Amino acid sequence: MRLCDLSATKSMVWQEYEKQIELSNSNNTVSKLVREFIDSADFCELAMNTQKDYVKYSKKILAAFGPMQSDKVQPKHVRQFMDILGQKSPVQANRHKAFLSRTYRWAFERGKVASNPCTGVKQFKETPRDRYVEDYEYQAVFNTACAVVKAAMEISYLCMARKADVVKLHKSQLLEQGIYIKQGKTGKKQIKEWGPRLRAAVTFAKAESARVESMYVLQQKNGSPFALASFDQRWRKAVIKARLETELPLDFTFHDLKAKGISDFEGTTAEKQRASGHKSESQISIYDRKVQVVPTVESKK
């Protein structure tokens, strides 16, 4: 690249050189860093749900930090961002910080930044959800739900599976031994063994969709799978209807059904971990929510 004419003085050359260096550095923004990370092989190796979440989180990160020089972002800026976002949702503030930290960690390892500004910034305390769905509550919503939601409830509960893994279930995943599920979040591969109730749920779902040929167990009228937002609408409709009919609060989420499955599973913590596909026993403690009945001094005698 030519800086200036051959007739330029030494001071003019240095002046132009410094200008070009400054211009080059101005392109090292957080916006560029985020874009490079999302385009990277490391990002592509993440679970699909994690990728979608990170893209969602990037919007607020770019709105706050996008034009800033990547090496100019300091822990105090991250703290300020979290405090503002944390006023409405501490959990979301933590998730956004995790994405920003992941981006900087990736960049630091490749010499793109000098440090990670998220290091040392304390997250908000998160209280693990402990809502256990009682059998009568489950049945109340089940009774008012449409066929799709009924089948999804049963599969999620019996297989201890996440909503995203149930809603997109392929008929090719229905094997002789059971239902093959590769967890979208952890990548864990399992075959959930058949039982009478699980077979009945799948048979019911397939019968309801027999009018249109489709590769999905749960399908829309045209044979296409449900978007999560569309499925959520059906779930909310069932819950609202059940509340009106029973006058019960029914303040649980669809994700709580997985926790109910783990809680109701008869076995040790290690057996629950193996059946649910979690990576550690500590994660099981979050999902095992049924209040335990323990002996008293007199009942033990």
From TrEMBL:
Pfam families reported in the protein's UniProt record: Phage_integrase
Signal sequence annotation: none
GO molecular function list: DNA binding
Alphabetic keyword roster: DNA integration, DNA recombination, DNA-binding
InterPro entries, per database record: DNA_brk_join_enz, Integrase-like_cat_sf, Integrase_catalytic, Integrase_recombinase_N, Phage_Integrase
Origin superkingdom: Bacteria
GO BP terms, alphabetized: DNA integration; DNA recombination
Keyword DNA-binding attributed: yes
Domain (Tyr recombinase) ranges: 143-289
Family: Belongs to the 'phage' integrase family.
PANTHER family (alphabetical): PROPHAGE INTEGRASE, PROPHAGE INTEGRASE INTS-RELATED
Protein's name according to its UniProt entry: Tyr recombinase domain-containing protein
Organism of derivation: Paraglaciecola polaris LMG 21857
